[in-house]
Amino acid sequence: MNRTLKEKIIKRIFFLFAIVSLFILGLIVVFLFMEGLPIFRTVSIRDFLFGMYWYPTSEPPEFGIRPLIVGSLVVTFFATVIAVPLGILSAIYISEIAPGAVKEIFKPVIELLAGLPSVVLGFFGMAVIAPWLQETFDLPTGLNIANASLVLAFMAVPTISSISEDALYSVPREFKEASYALGATKFETTVRVIVPAALSGISTAIILGMARAIGETMVVLMVAGGAAMIPESIFDSVRPMPASIAAEMGEAPFRSDHYHALFATGIVLFFLTLGFNLIADYVSNKFKEVGSGTL
Amino acid sequence: MRWRYFKQNVFFLMVRGSALCIALAIGAFLLYIFYHGVGAISWSFLTEPPRDSMTKGGIMPAILGTFYLTLGAISVALPLGILSAVYLNEYAKQGPAVRIIRIGVNCLAGVPSIVFGLFGLGLFVVYLHFGSSIASGALTLGFLILPTIIGASEEALKGVPSTFREASLALGVSKWQTILRIVLPNALPGILTGSILGIGRAAGETAPIMFTAAAFFTPLLPRSIFDQVMALPYHVYVLATAGTRIEETRPIQYGTIVVLVALVLGIDLIAIFIRSWIRKRKRW
């Protein structure tokens, strides 16, 4: 066989494998829609997204996922509030302050935190944090927004920390040296020069951390309490979207309205996280520093 | 001047404080888990099936199930991931097509695990009639870890100096032969490290296998890839929430968690060690 022809064929074959990821992404969309869209024969899209009541098993059933969406957003918001300072400050610690030996240990520790199975963290929230919250604040239950946000924050910290650290690390050394040469302290250099230069990477880190928190299932399933209501305080129970899907899919009769409604909830969740990821991708490319001359 | 250094000291205190806070949280968590769970671990715990509605006996079927699911997932994801990364790093010219593929990989990495579960249910369990089985679960987990494998393989391929490729091409070797004989062997340790991290991820995931593979309890061990299995993460979930005799199952619960955490962290630690070893002995 002609050698150039053979090379061309091989290249084509590799290309086919490269687009597998896109193909899977497409398949996910197709199957979510195939199993999810039939619910809109029963409920209008508006009533589904903004309906106040999620009573899928009562007679007649109600399929409004507003409390589930609010639940997801609330726990993600509080998790972000906790995780962002911890993640960014620990990234600054690793890249600017930590002595070599500490850095060698601390970086893998953060990676290990990222690897901990979420079901185990969920169990920790149930068995340790919940009773503590309940006693300390004299609550009817410790399974609530506060608990879920705290555990989710610790799941988001490794994402935020490691991506921010990459961004801080890739700030050109000349910037730092120029700042020191002008007489700035290490603090001034870090806060006024290095962090601003790494800002696009840090923003990407925050967005991806939030995406991680909003899509996390086991923690909110086990720890958020499961009440499908609009919360009034951070000690109320909520039922975020992933928790609802995971808890109810096992009992929903095959291809019933309830089954379709859970897939439709999956569609909402999918596009929400897709949005977060596309924004992160846009931010990291738009404001990418190509070299030291671009700032 | 003093004020400037005072600000610096306060800031550094906060930075060190948050690092310490994370380290302490991880430390306390691991200590708590191992303190409560190590006592339950014994040879019979690891080799016997559960008895008396899970209040006695061991977790052998769950360990075996997780092993099968993980093995299946990595056999799906590793070839796909390596081939995909070779295209992106060796063949593709920068342009809109590659840009779109990369966005696709990033978005796939961000798909929530429960959505993978729904997808696996829709495609494998229902549409392809695999039922809730090892096959469905392993394929779902394989797709879930594909972006991890692609990312790690790309990084490993990037680490192979371009002079290696140029030298080979200059000798008249074809591009395909260069990739097969020069680039891949040199990138292999890095690729394997990444796949080990993928294995750790697959072993610990619960949500994707809830509807696609995992069984509450199976009296028999799986005999084909179309059988349901028990799995360690799902077993932890079941014991934590579904038991009617929670107090009696607690020792087994903690034991299962210790096995799962030790397994996943052990796998990750191996990967981290191999990686730092590769970095140190690099010859170029």
Overview of the molecule:
The complex is a heterodimer of chains A (295) and B (284). Chain A is mostly helical. Chain A is 73% helix and 1% strand. Chain A has a single domain, classed as MetI-like fold. Chain A has 13 helices and 2 strands. Chain A has a two-stranded antiparallel sheet with strand order 1-2. In chain A, helix 4 (66-97) runs parallel beside helix 7. The termini of chain A are far apart. With 284 residues, chain B is mostly helical. In chain B, strands 1-2 form a two-stranded antiparallel sheet. Chains A and B meet through helix 1, helix 2, helix 4, helix 5 and helix 6 of A and helix 1, helix 3, helix 4, helix 5 and helix 6 of B.
Would you spell out the secondary-structure blueprint of this structure?
The complex is a heterodimer of chains A (295) and B (284).
Chain A (H helix, E strand, L loop, with lengths): L2 H16 L1 H17 L8 H6 L3 E2 L6 E2 L2 H32 L2 H16 L2 H20 L7 H25 L3 H9 L4 H12 L1 H17 L2 H6 L17 H8 L8 H30 L9
Antiparallel strand pairs in A: 1-2
Helix pairs in contact in A: 2-13, 4-7, 4-10, 5-7, 6-7, 7-10, 8-9, 10-13, 12-13
Chain B lengths: L1 H36 L5 H5 L2 E2 L4 E2 L2 H32 L4 H15 L2 H15 L6 H25 L3 H9 L4 H30 L2 H4 L21 H10 L4 H36 L3
Antiparallel strand pairs in B: 1-2
Integer average pLDDT of chain A = 91
The CATH topology assignment of chain B is MetI-like fold
Q: Largest sheet of chain A at a glance?
A: 2 strands, antiparallel
The ordered string of helix (H) and strand (E) elements of chain B is HHEEHHHHHHHHH
Number of domains of chain A: 1
Structural class of chain B: mainly alpha
Q: List segments of chain B where confidence is low: pLDDT < 50 over at least 5 consecutive residues.
A: none
**Please, how many helices of chain A?**
13
General shape of chain A? globular
Instruction: Return Rg of chain B in Å.
Output: 23 Å
Secondary-structure content class of chain A: mainly alpha
